[in-house]
Each structure stands twice: as C-alpha cells, then as structure tokens.
Amino acid sequence: MNNKEIQELIKLINKSNLTEFKLKDKDFELLIRTEKYQSGKTPKIVAPATQPILQVPPATMPSPAPAPAPEPAKEAPAAAGDETAAADASEYLEVCSPMVGTFYRSPSPEKGPFIKVGDVIEKGDVVCIVEAMKLFNEIESEHSGRIVKVMVEDAQPVEYDQVLFLIDPKG
Fold first, then answer.
1. β-sheet bridge partners, residue 157
2. How far, in Å, CA of 24 to CA of 39, rounded?
3. Which residue, of 60, 64, 164, 166, has the fewest CB within 10 Å?
4. How far apart are alpha carbons 9 and 2 in whole angstroms?
C-alpha cells in the first residue's frame, strides 16, 4: 500500500462514523484511530464463526442499494385492527443503518440489549452496534421517543439505510 492509498483511506475513515480501523496484510500492518476512539470503551463482540467476511478495497467498494423499507402500517398497531393505530404508524420515526454490516443489539453476548421495546430514548443514545469488517460501530439514535418495534433480529446482516427500529416521537 503506497502513501497516496493510505491518505485516501484516512480521508474515507474521517468521513465515516468509524472509531478505529485496522488493516493487516502479510508484513504490512496499519492501525488508524479517530478522535472518536476512546480506549477501553470499544465493545468486544465475538461474531459467529459461520459468517462470511467480505473484504473489498475501499476504492472499489460499490455503493449498496438501499433496502426497501418495511411498511410500518402493517406492524404491531395494525395487528390490533384499530384504524387510528394504523394511521399513527406512519407517524413513527425510523432509526436506519448508516452502513452495511452485522446488527447486534447488545455490547457483548454476556450483556443485555442497549434498548428494548417500550424504552424511552433521547437523541444521541446508543441503540445498537453494526459490525463492518471487524469494526464495531455504535449506532446512535437521531430521534427521541419510545421504542415501538425492533425491525432486525440480533446478529443478522443489515443493508445501508435499512430500518432497524421504529420510534414513537410522542413517547
């Protein structure tokens, strides 16, 4: 890897939400930590060994197509059969994945989830982790409110802009 490629990589990492990036190739090893990195606060999660790892150089990485968003109107409020509840479902705010990766609800297998259905959260609260290329990225909510629905199962792959949670802004 030459200096120009390293500089481009640093620019890409600074534009992302990554806190740490590590690259190892034979005798070459590169570790980049951003100002967001806080020693000792990086969650440790062991991903299942059966998950394939896709390693694509950043310069050739295609932009993933957004996954179709599920229709919130068909979720829990509509199951009650209440017409007004179905209308309210369109008022739910979505927390979407900012990247492609693996979704984790908790900071480690031994600990409980960051949030559960019914929890009231504030803007900036950590709601989950998305692991991408062995980097564990804490995902913060862009909205305040009450968690209505978790849209993804733990340890499942997620796409860019896929809905992870539905939030009732009215609390």
1. 102
2. 20
3. 60
4. 11
DSSP 3-state assignment of 84? helix
**Average pLDDT, 10 consecutive residues per value, the chain (171 residues):** 75 77 79 68 50 54 57 47 52 93 93 94 95 92 94 94 94 79
Give CA–CA dist 73/144, Å, rounded.
Answer: 20
Neighbours of 119 (CB within 10 A): 14
Type of residue found at 75: E
Structure-derived torsion over alpha carbons of residues 55, 61, 63, 67, reported in degrees to the nearest 10: -10
For the record, the structure tokens of 146 come out as: 């009450």
In the chain, what are the domains?
3-42 (no CATH), 72-168 (2.40.50.100)
Residue 37 DSSP code:
-
